[in-house]
Each structure stands twice: as structure tokens, then as C-alpha cells.
Design brief:
The protein has 344 residues and is mainly alpha-helical. It is built from eleven helices and two strands.
């Protein structure tokens, strides 16, 4: 199919769509494997707690005159806490994510080759790029084995965003509209996409942090009831790592993503001057991007301020997360402005 002087490779475009669907499917499999790992982690903690209690009881009996020796060597203690089947499934999840990520990146690359341009010229492609950046950030930040199960909570919004993009925002492979025919498309949009993906990971970590702070003590209470919906929520919260770990992860992501996002906004302003004759015009997209940037700056300031660095800072980060999603969807799809050429 010819569109002007640009020829679209329809075969590669179809391969790109197939790889996109494959990536979603593999991400779903990995998410459930990670959830199984979380369940296994809790079972392991409970088994270890029971073993420690039993060891303490044996030690007390020995002290009162029993002749039975107590072997407290790490190897002996570990025998009672061997990996469960769910934990073995969880260990498989991390490489499965890389399979999905490989298919995802291949989808983006083949889309770019098929169209002969940077493969993020419409909402479908931009969301795909952002989700790939989010997964890359997740596997890097959560590479520690004890943190890897948290990738289930990162993959959940990725899967939802990719499903929405593929189901309702999908656009056939085609050249970009004239307003986007600039080398700034490859620079500005790629920077914004990568930084948005990293900041999405931070937002997920802060949401989990607030949940852990609210319900963590009750969830870790061995005397609590596990019945009903509340019990299910408590079991899920008990699977999540400690609040301090989540807070550090959120902070690290913002430290990396915030200056990158700011650089993307600056590049967008330079592109705007070239395309529209002004650096800044308070277009809805520009305005919300600036608001999101200010919120993340406030988060970093709060993390360095006594009395704000815990729950208050996390709420600010969540506000930035919401602003980012609002800028991604509502501004592009609902609000009319100079950036309303999403190619839907």
C-alpha cells in the first residue's frame, strides 16, 4: 500500500501486531507466576516462624534438663523451609518476563521498520513504547530476587494499558501526520515515553507503600481471620515486601525519571518553537506536563524534608502518578488542543 512517497511493509506490520499480542499473553503468564511467588513467600515465612518457635521450645526443654540436643545450624533450619512449588513457579517468572519483553521490543522495532519512521507517532505506538519502558525499569529496579514478585503489580497496569491500546486505540501502520514529520519526534517522544514508564513504576511502588502502611500491621498479625473479602485483602497485603523497601524503590525511580521527564519537556518546547513559533503556549498537554513536573519536584523536596518523607511524600508521588495517567489519556483523547493528533 502506498501513501504518498512512503511504502508501508504490511507483512512486517502484521508481524508487529502478532508480537504485540504475544507480549501481552506472556506478561499475563508472568504476572500470575509472580503472584504464585508471593503466595509461596508468605508460606515460607510462616514455616520459618513455626520452625523458630519449635526450635525455641526445644532449647527451653534442653535448658531444663532434657538430654535432646538442638541443632541450630543454618543448613538444618533451612531443611524445614525448602522452596514450595509456588516458589519454584515464581522463580520461573523472571525469565518469562524477558521473553515477553523481547516480543514487545520486537513489535516496536518491526513497526518502525514497516513504517520507515520512529514507531511512536500515535497513541497506540506511544503507549506500547511507554509500557516497554515500564517493564524495563521494573526488571532493573526489582532485579533483587526478594523484590521480583513485585513485578506482578507493575505488569498489571502494563497489561491493562496494552489491552486498551490494542483494543480501542489501535491504528494501522501508516506515515505520521505532517505536524509530526520532524527529527524531534524521535527525540522528544522517546524521552517522554521512557521517563513516563519509569515514573509509572514509582507510582505503583508508592501505592503499595500506602497500602502496606495502612494494612501491614493487621496483615502480619498471626491471630487475624482470613475469611471473606477482607481476609483476601489481608493475605495479599501480607505478601508485599516491607514499606521501607517500597519507599526506596519509588524514590530511586523518581530520581532517575524526574530529570529525564524534565529534559523531555524542554525538548518539546524547542520542537514547539520550531513548529508553532513559540516555546510555550499553555496548551492543555503542556500545562498538565508542567503540573506533573511540579508534583514530582514537590515529591523529591518532601523526601528531603523531616516530617514529610514518609506517607505524605508517598501521597504526593501518587498525585504525580495520577497526573501522568491523566496527561497520557484524557488530554490526548478528550481535551482538544495542539497535541490532539493521536492518530486514532
Amino acid at each position: 500500500m502506498n501513501t504518498g512517497a512512503v511504502q508501508i511493509d504490511e507483512t512486517l506490520a502484521r508481524y508487529s501486531d502478532l508480537l504485540f499480542g504475544t507480549a501481552i499473553t506472556v506478561y499475563v503468564i508472568a504476572m500470575f507466576l509472580f503472584l504464585a511467588a508471593l503466595a509461596g513467600a508468605r508460606s515460607r515465612r510462616l514455616a520459618a516462624r513455626e520452625l523458630v518457635g519449635a526450635t525455641a521450645g526445644s532449647a527451653g526443654s534442653s535448658a531444663s534438663g532434657s538430654s535432646t540436643p538442638v541443632d541450630r545450624t543454618p543448613g538444618k533450619l533451612a531443611q524445614g523451609t525448602r522452596r514450595s512449588f509456588s516458589e519454584k513457579l515464581g522463580a520461573m517468572a523472571y525469565p518469562v518476563v524477558f521473553v515477553g519483553l523481547a516480543a514487545h521490543i520486537a513489535s516496536i522495532v518491526t513497526r518502525g521498520i514497516a513504517t520507515g519512521r520512529a514507531p511512536w507517532g500515535n497513541m497506540y505506538e506511544f503507549i506500547s513504547m511507554t509500557c516497554a519502558a515500564c517493564v524495563v525499569a521494573g526488571v532493573v529496579v526489582l532485579r533483587k530476587p526478594s523484590n521480583r514478585p513485585l513485578l506482578s503489580f507493575v505488569l498489571l497496569p502494563v497489561i491493562l494499558l496494552m489491552f486498551i491500546a490494542g483494543r480501542w486505540l489501535y491504528t494501522q501502520a501508516a506515515p505520521v501526520v505532517p505536524a509530526l514529520k520532524s527529527y524531534w519526534l524521535a527525540i522528544h517522544v522517546s524521552i517522554i515515553s521512557i521517563s513516563s514508564g519509569v515514573l509509572l513504576v514509582s507510582g505503583v511502588a508508592s501505592v503499595l507503600y500506602l497500602v502496606k502502611m495502612q494494612w501491614g500491621a493487621k496483615a502480619d498479625d498471626p491471630k487475624r481471620s482470613d475469611s471473606g473479602f477482607t481476609g483476601g485483602v489481608m493475605r495479599l497485603v501480607a505478601h508485599i515486601p516491607g514499606a521501607d523497601t517500597l519507599d526506596r524503590l519509588a524514590y530511586k525511580c523518581v530520581v532517575f525519571g524526574f530529570p529525564l521527564f524534565g529534559l523531555g519537556v524542554i525538548c518539546g518546547a524547542i520542537w514547539a518553537e520550531s513548529a508553532w513559533g513559540r516555546f510555550w503556549g499553555w496548551d492543555p498537554k503542556e500545562t498538565v506536563s508542567f503540573i506533573a513536573w511540579v508534583i514530582y519536584a514537590a515529591y523529591l523536596h518532601a523526601r528531603a524534608t523531616a516530617g514529610w518523607r514518609n506517607t505524605a511524600a508517598a501521597w504526593i508521588n501518587v498525585a504525580g502518578f495520577v497526573a501522568l495517567l491523566f496527561n497520557l489519556f484524557i488530554i490526548n483523547l478528550v481535551v482538544s488542543g495542539l497535541h490532539s493528533y493521536a492518530g486514532l
